[in-house]
Structures are given as structure tokens and as C-alpha cells.
Amino acid sequence: MTNRPSSDEQGETPRKAPIAEQAWLVIGLVMATACVAQSFGRFTWGVVLPGARDDLLNGSNTLAGFFGTLNVAAYLLGTLAVSWMASRVTLVGLLRIGLLTSTSALGLAAIAPNGPTLAVALTAMGFGGAMIWIPSPAIAARTLPPERAGMAVGLIGSGIGIGVLFAGQMARYLDRRSDGGEFWQTLYQIEFGIAVVVTIGIFAFLRSQGDRPSAAGGFGGVAALRTVPGWIPATVSYAAFGFSYILVIGFLVARLEDDSGFTSDQAATMFSLLGAATIFGGISLGPLSDKIGRRVTLIASFVIFGLCGLLALTGSQPWVAIAAIGAGLMFSGMPALIIAHIVDHTTPETYGPAFSAATLSFGLAQMISPQIGGLLADQLGSFTWVFILSATVAFIGAAFATRLQDS
């Protein structure tokens, strides 16, 4: 691992290392914000898509895919906003702004009476999600010793997994009690309540601890990113992950219900399995990469994720369950590996712009992926080629990951 300059080497006042209890409090709070940003604000759309599609979007997969595109396009805009605001606002400040945005958007989705209102809510969720997610790994990683950065970043991914599991299980419970009615807004209402509690906790307990706004990193943070060894394969790999994962996460429930004959309850259970596995992906692959290197761990993760996407096409058990578990493990593990690599080679001042720049490619890939998936499903009458495309892009990501330089 590359040694990052200490605070006094950069001319800052040295910060007192937090005691163990403080460190875990910080990590727990950041895990909760990641849950609100990603699990609630972004990935819940994959759970509620069939219900919202039929309730507000006249059953159109293309329109549902477009709504997913709005969410990730806003995530891209949020990334650009972070790259600009990083020289003006601390990492904790960015996280707070994003959390307020995401929480408000969840509240709007919970009462959305029509498609346009839901579109506004999903757009705001994407914007706020970027402003939460980008600073989160660095806040967590700097809380623990540098040699445990992979584990710290992985724990943030586990927060997302807990939220995905919660969304899937709550959807299953609400579906059983809905008597055939749509339950998707009830799920958003519950998530909004949780987000309000998390927001109060962040403002009450999470402090900046002397952090300064990041130094300027060039347009979109590219200059800062270029200082990271292996920045090109890392960036392309991140983009490949962004394109491939969202096809599986976003369309798994619809694929199982529409193509494989799963009931809503059965499909939600598979999504919950994926979410449960996500809890363990980051905290398994992160520490593993601390020991054997980011590169080899990332290559294997891409290959496994692609194979899991293909395995889901069998449409039968236990293969779908195995695919859901494997995809969940890799889903939380792969970004943790890429982010940990960037954390390894940046300072608190350059991390924000550098990760923002890397996230631009990730956001672009996410922006086009749901729309392509929805169009393929409508044109071909099934989600088969959507999952084949996901696997192909994952294998391309593995090829680029072979060029990644280990710390």
C-alpha cells in the first residue's frame, strides 16, 4: 500500500486518532447514510419497478428503464457537483447535503400521484446519492488504520447490502398484506421514515474532525485522478461495473416474474438473497484484497459476477438462488476494491476530486445501461439478452482489471 502523506507533512494540524468506540460510531453512521443513498434512493427502484410500472407507467418497460436512466443521470450530475464542491465543502459537509436531498426525495416518492412526480423524486435520489456515496468511503477509511482501508470501504458496502435486504424483505411482507393492491409506495414511506432518523443522527453525531475542503483537482477532478497509478484500467473497470451490475440489480425481479414464472413473493425473496449476500461481499473482498492485492481480487470478482448473470437465466432453482447470492457478493465487493485502490493513492485533499472523476465514467455507464436494458426487453420480449449483455461487459471489465497496478 502506498503511504499517504500525514497531516503535518501537508501543513495541517495533526488530528487526534479517534478511539475505537468513536471509530465504530463513525463507520456505523456512514454505513447508514450509504444505505439511504444507494439501497433506498437507487436500488429500491428495482424492487418496486413492476408495481410502479403497472400503476403509473402503463406497463411500459421502456418508460421504466427511462426512469432508471433519470436516476443514474442525476447521479452523474451529482458527481460533477461533488467535483466542483469538493474545493469548497468538506467531505462531511457533502455527505450532509446529499442526505438531506435523498431524504426529501424519498418523501416525495412516498406520495407521488403520477409518473412525472415520481420522475422528479428518482432524479433527486440520484443526485443526492452521488453526494453521499463519493465522500463516504474516505470518511470510513480514514477512521481505521491505512492497512485496513479495504475493510473500512467494504463495511460501507455492507450498509448498502443491509438496505437491499431490508427492501426485499419488506416488499415481500407488504405484498402478502396488500390483498392484490400495489404496495410500492408504502415501501418508500417506510424508507423515508428511516432516512429521517439517519439524517438526525448524522447532524447530531458526525463531525468534520478538522478536514479541509479538497484541493482543486482540475476539470472534473481528472488531474487528481491521473496521479493514481493504474488510473485508466481502474476507471474503465469502474465503468464496466456500472454498466453490468445495474442490468442485474435493476431487472432481476422483472426477469424472474415476467420470464421465469416467479410470483412477486418468490422474486422478492431472490432479491433479498442478493441483498443478504451484499452485506458480506465488501467485508470479505475488501480484507482479502488487503492481503493478496486489489488486481487479482477484482479480476476474479468480475468473472464470477458475469457467470452469475448467466446462471440466473436458467430460471430454475437452486441455480437462481446461487446466482443471486454470487451476484450480491460481487456487487458490493467490486466497487470496494476500486475505491480502496483510489483511497490507497490519494490524500484527504485529492481524494474527492479523484474519486469524482472516476465516478464520471461509472455514472455515464449507469446512465445508458437501464435504457438499453428496457429497450432490449421490450423489443425482444424477454430479459435474456439483457443478462447476456451484463455478463459480456463484466468479462470486459475483468480484462481491463488485469492492467490494474497493485498497491
Short description:
By secondary structure, this protein is mainly α. It has 14 helices and no strands. It has helices at 20-56, 61-85, 91-111, 115-133, 136-141, 149-177, 184-205, 222-225, 231-258, 264-292, 294-311, 319-344, 348-380, 384-401.
Explain this structure to me?
By secondary structure, the chain is an all-alpha fold. It has a single domain (20-401), classed as MFS general substrate transporter like domains (Growth Hormone, Chain: A, Up-down Bundle). Helix content is 77%, strand content 0%. The radius of gyration is 20 Å and the shape is globular. Residues 1-19 have low confidence and may be disordered.
What count of structural domains?
Answer: 1
In CATH terms, the superfamily is MFS general substrate transporter like domains
Shape: globular
Spatial separation of the terminal alpha carbons = 4 Å
Mean pLDDT: 83
Query: Main β-sheet: number of strands, strand sense, barrel status?
Result: none
- Computed over alpha carbons, the radius of gyration is 20 Å
Order of helices and strands: HHHHHHHHHHHHHH
Q: Output the CATH topology.
A: Growth Hormone, Chain: A
Total helical segments: 14
**Helical amount:** over 70%
CATH architecture: Up-down Bundle
Task: Look at the helices and sheets and give the structural class.
Answer: mainly alpha
**In terms of per-residue confidence, which ranges show pLDDT below 50 for 5 or more consecutive residues?**
1-19
CATH class: Mainly Alpha
